């Protein structure tokens, strides 16, 4: 795959350029991600902050995760699409949890692991051989 890859929110006000391969791609089945994705799970690409460049204004919203960590969501103020998440109290890792559904080609990143399968909808099948975790690893 060639980088950079372009991505944008639904209305196009926020766009980005991903310059390097994600560190990992996961599918999260927690009920919060089901609400976020309006789907059985949400796909997230863990990317280094220095491998992505954003254009446009983002707004933020945060909630507490079950772990006690803050989960801050950055989203487009116009269309409301979430673009990425991060923990504002742990910037030492220098990573973002990018929502790769905004990429020009959404088929590029297949999940390498499924988390929060303890909240997975019963009719969702996870491919054989893919790592699974009952909660957050």
Automatic annotation (TrEMBL):
<comment type="similarity">
    <text>Belongs to the Gfa family.</text>
</comment>
<keyword id="KW-0456">Lyase</keyword>
<dbReference type="InterPro" id="IPR011057">
    <property type="entry name" value="Mss4-like_sf"/>
</dbReference>
<protein>
    <submittedName>
        <fullName>GFA family protein</fullName>
    </submittedName>
</protein>
<feature type="domain" description="CENP-V/GFA">
    <location>
        <begin position="5"/>
        <end position="110"/>
    </location>
</feature>
<dbReference type="Pfam" id="PF04828">
    <property type="entry name" value="GFA"/>
</dbReference>
<dbReference type="GO" id="GO:0016846">
    <property type="term" value="F:carbon-sulfur lyase activity"/>
</dbReference>
<dbReference type="InterPro" id="IPR006913">
    <property type="entry name" value="CENP-V/GFA"/>
</dbReference>
<dbReference type="GO" id="GO:0046872">
    <property type="term" value="F:metal ion binding"/>
</dbReference>
<keyword id="KW-0862">Zinc</keyword>
<keyword id="KW-0479">Metal-binding</keyword>
């Amino acid at each position: 795959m060639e980088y950079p890859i372009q991505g944008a929110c639904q209305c196009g006000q926020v766009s980005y350029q991903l310059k390097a391969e994600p560190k990992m791609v996961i599918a999260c089945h927690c009920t919060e991600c089901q609400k976020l994705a309006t789907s059985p799970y949400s796909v997230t690409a863990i990317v280094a902050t220095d491998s992505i460049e954003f254009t446009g204004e983002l707004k933020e919203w945060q909630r507490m995760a079950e772990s006690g960590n803050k989960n801050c969501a950055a989203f487009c103020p116009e269309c409301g699409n979430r673009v990425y998440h991060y923990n504002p109290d742990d910037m030492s890792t220098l990573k973002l949890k990018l929502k790769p559904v905004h990429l020009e080609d959404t088929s590029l990143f297949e999940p390498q692991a499924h988390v929060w399968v303890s909240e997975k909808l019963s009719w969702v099948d996870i491919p054989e051989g893919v790592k699974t975790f009952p909660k957050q690893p």
